[in-house]
């Protein structure tokens, strides 16, 4: 499923949608459902596209055309053992639309007030956890929904409103993992959380390595700079088949009226330079998401073509990876 009226050239996307490392990335339904799949449910930064308060051409054109890009999020479906299990990675402000998209892509129906079986959140910035509020009694009224996060994030949810009300009413069941050690949202799907440097006002920030029966995927939507922790990027990429990396800004010129030192992210151009050898060996393995609404890689097909030509890709909402 592609975003309505997205300004993309089909051939350019198809060049980047087949990984040459054995993990097939596709935006089309497979002929036969596979046991465990990952879906991309959003590729934009926290505010999505169109972006509230933005009257630039990028957002005005999106409003006029109906184009929508949701905040960065993944969904996992596990079809083994009876009824499919659904894992949501990030609870964004567009959580309703994204769970509906997950249901459509996974081919599940009749979930009612149990739209997913578990949630994982990376950190306490609004585009990543604000949607948890909708699982409270005012909307879903969930019952003991597992929410996996770091110990610091867990303390924050238990100690601050409105999240502490969801905990007190047993609508969410906050489960703190041990950073760096594998845990299982359910048997057969393993996750390892790795701490990454970011603006950690209310919680620390995690990257996730998600491993299924046959493949693994990396999810790093937010990081300040790879260089802040020597060897971090190589450590994160080790052994993973597909990597979804922070692509917030392309070259740093997207927000001339903002001080980017206050909202630090690695530039796509810088990340491509650092990982050129990986992209040459495994085209399509490195895929960018969490793009700011002003990022030209969201709007300029020539820039996307240049990214693809270097062996990288911009993720597409609705693409899937067999795990």
Q: Your description of this structure?
A:
This protein has 323 residues and is of the alpha/beta class. The chain has a single domain (10-322), classed as Ribonuclease Z/Hydroxyacylglutathione hydrolase-like (Metallo-beta-lactamase, Chain A). The chain is built from 10 helices and 15 strands. It has helices at 10-16, 57-65, 95-106, 126-129, 151-159, 163-168, 232-237, 268-274, 276-281, 301-309; strands at residues 25-26, 36-42, 73-78, 85-89, 118-120, 145-149, 172-176, 183-186, 189-195, 206-211, 216-220, 242-246, 286-289, 313-314, 320-322. An 8-stranded mixed sheet has the order 1-15-2-3-4-5-6-7. α7 (232-237) links the parallel β11 (216-220) and β12 (242-246). The longest helix is centred in the first third of the chain and has 12 residues, at 95-106. The radius of gyration is 18 Å and the shape is globular. The two termini are 19 Å apart.
Which percent bin holds the helix content?
10-25%
Secondary-structure-based class equals alpha/beta
How many domains? The number is 1
| Form type | globular
The CATH topology: Metallo-beta-lactamase, Chain A
Cα-based radius of gyration, to the nearest Å: 18 Å
The number of helices is: 10
- CATH architecture descriptor: 4-Layer Sandwich
DSSP, total strands:
15
N-to-C span: 19 Å
Placed side by side, the strands forming the largest sheet appear as: 1-15-2-3-4-5-6-7
Task: Supply database-style keywords.
Metallo-beta-lactamase, Chain A, seven-stranded mixed β-sheet
Quick synopsis:
Helix 1 (10-16) runs parallel beside helix 10.
């Amino acid at each position: 499923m592609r975003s309505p009226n997205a300004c993309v050239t089909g051939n350019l996307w198809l060049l980047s949608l087949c990984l040459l490392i054995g993990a097939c990335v596709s935006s089309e339904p497979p002929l036969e459902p596979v046991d465990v799949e990952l879906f991309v449910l959003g590729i934009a930064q926290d505010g999505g596209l169109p972006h509230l308060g933005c009257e630039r051409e990028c957002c005005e054109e999106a409003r006029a055309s109906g184009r929508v890009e949701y905040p960065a999020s993944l969904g996992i479906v596990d079809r083994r053992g009876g009824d499919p299990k659904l894992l949501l990675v990030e609870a964004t402000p567009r959580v309703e639309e994204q769970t509906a998209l997950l249901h459509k892509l996974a081919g599940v129906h009749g979930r009612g007030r149990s739209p997913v079986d578990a949630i994982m959140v990376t950190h306490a910035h609004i585009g990543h956890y604000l949607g948890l509020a909708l699982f409270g009694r005012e909307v879903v009224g969930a019952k003991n929904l597992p929410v996996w996060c770091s110990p610091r994030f867990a303390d924050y949810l238990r100690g601050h409103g409105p999240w502490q009300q969801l905990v007190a009413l047993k609508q969410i069941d906050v489960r703190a993992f041990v950073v760096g050690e594998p845990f299982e949202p359910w048997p057969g799907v393993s996750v390892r959380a790795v701490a990454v440097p970011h603006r950690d006002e209310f919680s620390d920030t995690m990257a996730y390595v998600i491993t299924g029966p046959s493949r693994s995927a990396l999810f790093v939507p937010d990081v300040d700079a790879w260089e802040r922790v020597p060897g971090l990027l190589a450590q994160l990429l080790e052994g993973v088949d597909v990597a979804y990396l922070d692509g917030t800004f392309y070259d740093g010129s997207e927000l001339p009226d903002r001080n980017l030192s206050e909202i630090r992210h690695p530039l796509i151009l810088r990340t491509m330079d650092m990982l050129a050898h990986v992209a040459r060996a495994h085209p399509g393995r490195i895929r960018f998401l969490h793009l700011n609404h002003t990022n030209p890689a969201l709007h300029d097909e020539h820039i996307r073509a240049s990214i693809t030509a270097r062996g990288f890709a911009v993720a597409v909402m609705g693409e899937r990876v067999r795990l």
